[in-house]
Every structure is written in C-alpha cells, then in structure tokens.
Amino acid sequence: MGLPFEIGAASDAGGRRGVLHLPHGAVQTPVFMPVGTAATVKAVPQETLEQIGADGAGAEMILANTYHLTLRPGHELIRRMGGVHRFMSWNRPMLTDSGGFQVFSLAKLRKVTDEGVEFRSHLDGSKYFFSPEHSMEIQIALGADVMMAFDECVETPATWERTRDSMSLTHAWARRSKQYFEAHREEVPWAEKFEGKTQSLFGIVQGGMFPDLRRESAERLVEMGFDGYAIGGLAVGEPPDVTREMIARTLEFLPRDKPRYVMGVGYPDQIAEYARMGVDMMDCVLPTRAARHGLLFRKAEPGERQADEEQIGEESIGENWTGETSVIRMNIKRVEYAEDQRPIDPACGCMVCKRYTRAYLRHLFMAREPLGATLNSIHNLAFYLDIMERVRATLAAESRLSGEQAAAWLRDSRDSGDELDQAVRDPWA
Amino acid sequence: MGLPFEIGAASDAGGRRGVLHLPHGAVQTPVFMPVGTAATVKAVPQETLEQIGADGAGAEMILANTYHLTLRPGHELIRRMGGVHRFMSWNRPMLTDSGGFQVFSLAKLRKVTDEGVEFRSHLDGSKYFFSPEHSMEIQIALGADVMMAFDECVETPATWERTRDSMSLTHAWARRSKQYFEAHREEVPWAEKFEGKTQSLFGIVQGGMFPDLRRESAERLVEMGFDGYAIGGLAVGEPPDVTREMIARTLEFLPRDKPRYVMGVGYPDQIAEYARMGVDMMDCVLPTRAARHGLLFRKAEPGERQADEEQIGEESIGENWTGETSVIRMNIKRVEYAEDQRPIDPACGCMVCKRYTRAYLRHLFMAREPLGATLNSIHNLAFYLDIMERVRATLAAESRLSGEQAAAWLRDSRDSGDELDQAVRDPWA
Q1: Overall pTM surpassing 0.90 (yes/no)
Q2: A356: distance to nearest CA of chain B, Å?
Q3: Alpha-carbon distance A181 to A191, whole Å?
Q4: ipTM for the complex shown
C-alpha cells in the first residue's frame, strides 16, 4: 500500500498540481513546508500558522527536526506525550527529517562507520549514536506523517570518489531504514487514531554535484521502493544554477506518480521555479531565519532592482539566481524605513501587511522587541505560502494534461529515465 | 469639562464599578492595564491582545512608557506617524506615564534641579533633559488618551524631610504640567479625529510611606484639579502591608467621582484587593515579565499551598501578602512539568490553556524558544484580565449603592476626607 498521491494536472515543463493524502489531512501540492525545528516554527503560534497567507488556509504541512527533538526534549518523552503532533498541538500533516543533515552540520566530533554516526550534542557535548535503525525508531516515536530514510551528507566540495562512497553508504542505510520501518511502522503513537493509516517513508537521493551519481542514486532508491523521493545534499554552498541542474537531472529518474521533495530550498523565486519543474514538496528555514534577521521579502515593482546585497548571519544573500528581480529583500533596519507608513508589501494581504507599517516593524527590530521576530516571520511565511498558491493556480491553468490524460501520463512513469525525460519536455511526444 | 467617568455601583468597602469614556473608547473599571513599554506589550501581537481573556474582550487599555519611547524611536517621530496609537496600530485607549519613574530607576547620572532632571540614556549614554514641560510636550506628541503629570520619585527608604521636599517638588511640577497641558492640549496628533475630545491629565500623589504626607499630597493635587489621580511611589520595595496601608490612607483624600489609579502594582491577589478598596486603574509589568522568566499564575486548588519561593530576575516573589493562597506561581522549568499534559490552569479558558500543555510550555522555555515567551505572556495577561472581570462582576453584585443612590454618594465626594472615610466604611451612615 503506497502513499495516496493524486496528480490532477501537469504542465509542459513537468510541474504537477496534486494532493497528498496523509493521516493528518490532505496537502495541496506543490507545497512549501515551514520549518518547526524544535516542535515550533520559531516565534509563530500554531493558531497563527493555521491562518497564515492571503487565503487564510495557513500552512498545510510543517517540518520538525529529528536531531533537535532527540536532544531536547527527547523522542521517548514525545512518544509518551502521544507524538509530536499532540505534543505541540499541531493537527495537520508534518514531516520529520532523518537527522542526518543536522548531525553533519551541527554536531561535534562525528565518527562515521558503516553502522552509523557517533557524535556529541551541540548543546551539552553529551554522546549520541544515530544509525538507520535509531533514526527510524526516533521518527516513529515522533510520529510525523512522513519520515525520511537516514542518509549521509557529503561535504561540499567533494571528489567524485568521495561522493560515490558516501552515496553508497546512504543506499545501504536507506535499505536498512526501510527494513526497520516496515517491521515497526505499527508502533507510531497514533496508530489507533487513524485505523489502518501509518507513516510514510521517503528515500533521499544523494550524489553531490555529479549527474551520473544522482542518476545512479535515484535508480537504486526507486528499485528499493519508497513512498516518495527526496533530493538531498543541495543548497549547501554550490552556485544556484548547479542546484537547479542537479534537481532537473534527478527528477528525470524519479517516478512521476510519487511525491518528489527537494530538501532545504530556497529563495522565493527558486521555490516557484522548482515547483514548475516538477518538485512537489520543499522546506526551508529561510523565511523564518531571514525574518529574525530583519530581512523581509516583497514583490518588486515594475523595473525595480535589488538595491543591495544582504547578509543573514554568515550567509550572503546574493543576487537572485535567475538574474531577474521579481522579489525584493528589504532590510528593515535601514533608516529609509524609519518613517515609512506603508506595509512591507502593498500587494500582500497577510495579517502583518494589513495592520502594521514598515516604520513600526523597524522600531521593533531596532528595539530588539520579540514582536518584531513574530511579525516578520508571519509575513515572510505568508509570502512563501502565497507564492506556492499562485504556482498551484498557474499549474492548474497551464496544464495541457488533466483527468484521463494525466492518469495516462502517470502510468508511463515506470518508463526509463530517458523516455521520461523526453515526456517531461513534451508530454505529447 | 472633565473626563467622563460613570460609576454604576459601589461596594461597602469602597470598590466601584465604573466606565471611563476616553477618546479611543470606553473602559470598564476597575481595569488592569498591560504594559507596552516600547509601544509593544512584549511578545504579544496586538490582534491577540484584543482577544485575550476568557470573555474574548481583550485588554481594553494599555500603557506605554514615555521614557523608553523618547529614547527610541523618539517622540517627534511618533508624532509624525500620527501618535503612538497609529504607530503601533492599537486603536483602544492608552495611557503614558510621565517618564519620572524610569528616569529615577533606569537612567544614568541623574541631576535633579527645580527646573527638571538631566540624565543620560541607559541605551547609549546620550544626554537628555526632562522637565514638566518636556514631559507634557512628549506625552502630547505620543498622544495617549491619558497622560501623567511629571513627578519625582523618592528613593526607598527616605526620611520624612527628604520625602516632604521631594513631594513639594512633585507638586510644583504638577502645577507646571497642568499649565503646559492646558496651553497645548490641542496639539495632540489626533485632535481632528475626535472632535472636541483631547487627552486627559492625571496628577500623581507622592509622599512615600508617610500617611500625613500622602494626605497633604492628595489635598494639594485635588486643589489643582486633575482629570484623575494616581498614587505613585509604591511597590518600590516596601512590605506589602505598607503598600496597602498607603493606598487606603490616600484613597480617603481623593474625590470619589474621579478615577483613581495605583501605578505599578501588583500580584494577582493584590490587584483584586486594591480594586475592592476603590482603585479604578492599575498597571504592572509583572504578568509579562514573570511570563518571560517562566513564572505562570494559576488558581490554587482547595487547600493547596505555594510550594516554593520564586525569583524573577533579582526580585524575590515571596509568599502571598494576604497570607492566603488563592493563586499559585508555577515555575514552568521545574522537571515535574516535563510530562504534564494538563493546561497551565485547568480552570482558565484562555487560548493557551485551551490548546497547550505544561509539558510543551516547559519544552519551549527550556529550549529558549520565542514562542514560550509569547504563550506564557498571553496566559498571565488573561489571568490578570480575568481576575479584574470577576472583581467587576462582584462589585456590581455586592453593591448596596446603585442608580440614584450611587449618584448621591458621588455628589458627597467633595466632603472632607474624614467624612469621606466614614462614608466609605459605611455608605449608609
């Protein structure tokens, strides 16, 4: 029994308008998932998250981080509280990552063996061990609707050989993840609540910046058979056109009838572009992290250019990767906003733009008032969710495939990658 | 033309159920005003503040701090933005303090002369000068519905002589405040919006811990004639029974037909008690400051005792001053709450208690998640507002004075203090 995923329409470019049916509800795809690292989307109350965005539909699905929740408050505590949905009072779909990326980016003194990864907590230095089986056990205890196979993330840049070896380890871990999950999936804390429904498990395609390895990784994972497929190890410092190329070259080898998820992306223009290419799910800390640093997204006015290059912490936010400027990044601390009575984005219908001025948001940021982080986060999330809403509307409208045609197109998805690639480029070919 | 203040009912103990009619709306009294120091009630969005509390009525009136807003973003900026209501998008009544207390508690290198106070900002050391005229000018620029005469706050403990001299300075400053206000009240930024309505000015009774000085201060201010009277210089470290005694001994000499406001109080039991004694308005940072330190108020269960003594920053929160324990202070960081699936207060109907568990709130606090401060603040404010709602209901129900009787009782309020005192003890005497 697979994860029910309906695709109602698809565009020439491969973008798909779909609905993912998960135990905690239906999710309209393509979907952007706000990140709730520690069982909270930072600074945003759950009741607000349920209403965010111009249409008031709120975030339909969020992500929580396995690594963070294992360290604090601990997955066994969350299991006893009924799972992370009940713990945080979020009754809509949720996804947990595998913990792999955080182990590689946050933890100290990592030691990787075929068995798993030993590391020390970035919080207090205490020792942990994650294996594929541990990651599954933790994610079952957390009880998100979608969980991710445990993977290794290779450093960037890495050689072809190093990337291939890491990918092979990821494949072995994916197989062990699937075995453990299939033997234990009934242990999810809410098993009795949704009769017959349990969690879904996605595999993660690795392969670094090498198209041949991406293809090999996709093919191996598809052979194993997962409920959905993620593309991992991107947006880790490589140029944006490489990210885009890797996504395109991986999508070719993933089945059309399963959800495809690109992890940890991206800027507003990027998430729209990836969705149009056929990505169904994305998540990123960018809207909330940028918000806490006073960086707010808004639509560009006709002919407007991005005035400056901004920093978020140590990350540079450079020019828009497409070279176009449809989205402006406002640094709310700039003095030009001190008496600006306009909303962040006059074209935005979010609760922040309906009520508060740039002048007030600048004051909150300069005075380090916690309300600043909250309002900035609400706007940036609304901006992201609204982009996805527009992309979904466009995909539905542009589609030349619908109803039976889309079903036939999906049935073709077990074709070889090359044929698929051709079909995606021109679905009538 | 005075400030319209209707008193509908009064209890034997002097407590009054009233309505204060201000330019930005009507306020049910006795009222507790959450503190919005820097034009934000810390960590709580305005839309939430409008709905907080079991009855969904929200905070009817809030306070903003003149000292903080003068330093950042500056009162001239706020004037240009249309006043603090419009600046922060709060369309209900608001009060600004005089800046006096903050100058004495926060600022550096104060130098007090008859003319005013020179001091340096606690933010960046830059030099400021506040006189009664400056305080009025600033408060008119901010444009709160109620503004406060500029006062000096004496240190605690202080001798009778030192307290009398300081009180005399406060009286001279009150007179100058009133003169400036009467000459400039039409300059409020929203003067055109509410035809004919302008701000109100309250005098502040000082006199330290000396009943004779409190009486003298009340009498001098009443001679000058203000729209309402505040009792200042309390809750500055003296024992709670002294605070209560000073309030009682001051209320005796304040006219019954004007609002009476005790500044900067108090614990939940205290605000209920003061309201029953005849105080109409109170404000305090305690519910929000305690919330940010993880201290949550809830009703005691029958026979329950406060288990421990908690600290908020450097302030000790000792045993309930009444000796009774009707309110429990929970320190949410305690391990006993780690898996406690109950709401903070099972008897509370606030949005936090309806949705979130102690276990989740403890996790947010331990993980230093900003949502913790927000949810804790919402609950504590709801707890305070609900107390005042119950006190108002009790005052209305208990009253033996209503309608014409209350009106007659109010007309007596120009009697001498002693007679007033007698009348308050037994209004039928």
Answers
A1: yes
A2: 6
A3: 14
A4: 0.92
